[in-house]
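User: I'm putting together notes for a lab meeting next week and I want to include a structural view of one of the chains we've been expressing. I don't have a solved structure, so I'd like a prediction I can at least talk through. The sequence is below, exactly as it appears in our construct file.
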Amino acid sequence: MKNNIKYLLTFSLVGIAIALVVLKYWDYVINPWTRDGQVRANVIQITSRISAPIVNLPIKDNQFVKAGDLLFELDPRTFKATLDQARAQLEETGDTVKALEKQVDVSKANVKAELAAIEEAKTNISQLRATVIKNKAEHVRQENLIKANATSKKSEETAQADYDVSVQQELSAQASLRKAQASLGESEANLAKSEAQLGAIGESNAQVKAALAALRTAELNYEFTKVYAPVDGYVTNLNIRLGTQSVANQPLLALVDSNSYWIDGFFQENYIRDIDKGDKAIVTLMTYSDLPIEGVVDSI
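Assistant: Thanks for the context. Below is the predicted structure for the 300-residue chain, given as structure tokens.
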């Protein structure tokens, strides 16, 4: 009897143990867990856009900073001088362009005046041509009359003089036309030269655009003398001091984004079939076992 009780008790304990193991295993399958996990975060390498010595360093290693806080400042004197020079160059370019614009206006006015002079000379020539024809006819008439003793010598000489004067006036007017046409060609050449030197009008002008671009570059370089935190986070790998020569695009420190923490948990493949994206998860850090952290499965 005692043996039966002993066997029954043994079988019961073994059954309970097996049941507990099965239940534990089933709980693990339904709610898998792992001790193999790593805390991750985005780490931003902080560099300068320009090369210059550091003159202001208000941060310390492992310090928490907010987005927009000053991390360090570079010597701005050289870049301020370049900025002032670019502003002066823009003003000088503006004055040069205005002078060229006035020169273009003067050249256009000259072309317009020469065109008017040409039209006036052509009109004058037409009128003088009619006068020449008239005076020539009168001169021929007076010559015929003098042969017939029907007019005086003085009248004939007057007709001859009038004809000669009108011919000279016509020749002078033609010379004026040729001169005006030559002046027009010169004025048009000067206009083309002035317009070529000026280029486009306003801010589309190549000289103005170049000066504006140089100014913007100088402004950016001056702004780059101050480097600010792009995100909230913790300063790390701070190996610079006052006077350190910053080299453009070379990392000077790192910033751990405090809003980017995640946990990488490693599971065997046959235990993750019941894990889905969006499932709730509880994470416990070994050093803070009494402070569980709730999270959500982001990817598998």
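A couple of points you could mention at the meeting. The domain at 79-220 is CATH 1.10.287.620 (Helix Hairpins). The chain has three domains: 1-30, 32-41+261-300, 79-220.

User: Perfect, that's what I needed.
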